[in-house]
Design a protein that fits this description.
It is built from 20 helices and 14 strands. It has 454 residues and is of the alpha/beta class. It folds into 2 domains: 229 residues, Rossmann fold, CATH 3.40.50.11720; 201 residues, Glycogen Phosphorylase B (Rossmann fold). The strands form 2 sheets. Strands 3-2-1-4-5-6-7 form a 7-stranded parallel β-sheet, sandwiched between helices. Strands 10-11-9-8-12-13-14 form a 7-stranded parallel β-sheet, sandwiched between helices. Helix 3 crosses helix 19, helix 6 runs parallel beside helix 8 and helix 10 packs parallel to helix 14. The two termini are 36 Å apart.
């Protein structure tokens, strides 16, 4: 086991120049990757003066690698602040979108930095600088040296809202000399589902409870939701969204949108295809912001007109396709849509999270690939908040049919709301579990104000 960790540590140390080069390349499209690069290697300079003066035990460290994890962290953070009023937040990320979203969560005295690259040196410098009372990894982020460093430093490191797909379990089992000590070295794991708990235990993780999914506790932004619904009323025809689409799925959508059935096909099949292209307003919201321009070029290259959200004033512009090119506005898009096709589920990518759609009362049509959120997808289908189809072509037809059937659509919306409401409570339970690990934080008075940000 020690030999495996030593080899891994050497590889991560040797990979540092490659990481710097990757960050430079990504920064061309996303400038956030060029910000404070040295933080990733455990070098913080004088930019956080209160970090070294803050007494040990104040910092509650949350690591939320990207956008989705940061949104889940926001739900947990609200409960943590209520139960640990003396805490100060140390927030780390791995992606530019996660960091941009996380900046909205900071209060006076909080700190936001990049996740340390997983070398012993970077991890050690990070832990010496901030001395957190507890570390909370969101969902899936388990790094061997990070776990080992926290064990040496006496920092309890936990995995919250934990999930592990069968694919990830198989990958971890192939790397058992690294993975098993990393999972076993965690202080506690709180799983989303019983299946996640079973898979995590198979890797030696100390699963202390199955608390559900934090994202069920999300309360959609009421103003955004209302704005979306108002725009939908003005549209005059149903709106169907391809939500959080991933690379390749927009091309699949376009192929089916433009498809012309051969004459040998039935008149019913021809009518269904024509209906998909002509009877509804289509909205596409790509998952990653660096692909907004790429998707627009794809659609316009096929002769379609495109109206981007960033250019809307008082209402969406007239176009064949609306393009959602903003961050933090999914509640607006789910309010605007009658039905959503779930991105990531029509290519073998594991699917995106459908819980926010349900909380907004937007029914979802799923493809066959939902292994990242398998139980949530099955529960949603069983509750009538979602339907599964074998491919995107049938998904588009089904979504349009549902959007045009007022009675069925109203029932599906009701099922979506009930499904979301039935599974709430994970945030409070998780915060209580964290509080039990670090009771000293709850006894601390609020720290003096003075925001500290990277």
């Amino acid at each position: 086991m020690k030999a495996a960790l030593a080899c891994y540590s050497l590889l991560t140390w040797c990979a540092q120049p490659l990481l710097r080069r990757k960050l430079r390349r990504r920064a061309v499209a996303e400038p956030g990757y060029a910000h404070a690069v040295d933080e990733r290697f455990g070098h913080y300079g004088p930019v956080h003066p209160s970090a070294s003066t803050q007494p040990p035990g104040h910092w509650v460290w949350i690591h939320a690698v990207s956008l989705g994890e940061t949104r889940a962290a926001a739900i947990l953070l609200a409960q943590l602040r209520a139960q640990l009023p003396g805490m100060r937040l140390l927030l780390t990320h791995g992606t530019a979108t996660g960091r941009a979203e996380g900046a909205k969560l900071l209060q006076p005295g909080d700190v936001q930095v990049w996740q340390p690259w997983d070398t012993p040196g970077a991890v050690s410098r990070f832990l010496r600088r901030f001395r957190p009372a507890v570390g909370i990894l969101m969902e899936t982020e388990v790094w061997p040296n990070l776990v080992a460093g926290c064990q040496r430093a006496g920092v309890p490191l936990v995995l919250a809202n934990a999930r592990l797909s069968e694919k990830s379990q198989r990958q971890a089992q192939r790397l058992a000399p690294l993975a098993r000590p990393a999972y076993a070295g965690l202080a506690a794991v709180w799983a989303q589902t019983e299946d996640d708990a079973r898979r995590l235990r198979s890797l030696g993780a100390p699963v202390r409870g199955v608390l559900g999914n934090l994202k069920f506790d999300l309360v959609p932004d009421a103003a955004l939701l209302a704005q979306g619904r108002a725009w939908r009323q003005q549209t005059g025809r149903p709106v169907v969204m391809l939500a959080s689409s991933r690379e390749g799925e927009e091309a699949m959508w376009l192929e089916n949108f433009q498809k012309k059935q051969p004459l040998a096909q039935s008149a019913q099949a021809q009518e269904a295809i024509n209906n998909v292209a002509n009877s509804v307003q289509w909205l596409i919201v790509p998952r990653h912001p660096q692909r907004f321009d790429e998707v627009q070029q794809l659609l316009e290259g096929a002769g379609l007109t495109v109206s981007r959200r960033s250019r809307w004033a008082s209402a969406p512009g007239a176009a064949d396709v609306w393009l959602g090119d903003s961050l933090g506005e999914m509640a607006l898009y789910y309010g605007l849509a009658d039905v959503a096709l779930l991105g990531g589920s029509f290519a073998p990518l594991g699917g995106q999270n459908l819980i926010e759609a349900a909380a907004c009362g937007c029914p979802v049509v799923l493809g066959p690939h939902t292994f990242n959120f398998a139980e949530a997808a099955e529960l949603a289908c069983a509750a009538g908040a979602a339907e599964r189809v074998p491919d995107l072509a049938q998904g588009m037809v089904r979504a349009v049919d549902l959007a045009e059937d007022a009675a069925s659509l109203a029932l599906a919306r009701e099922h979506a709301h009930r499904f979301a409401a039935a599974h709430r409570g994970a945030a409070q339970a998780t915060a209580q579990a964290v509080r039990a690990l670090v009771p000293q934080v709850a006894q601390l008075p609020p720290a003096a104000p003075g925001a500290v940000r990277a």
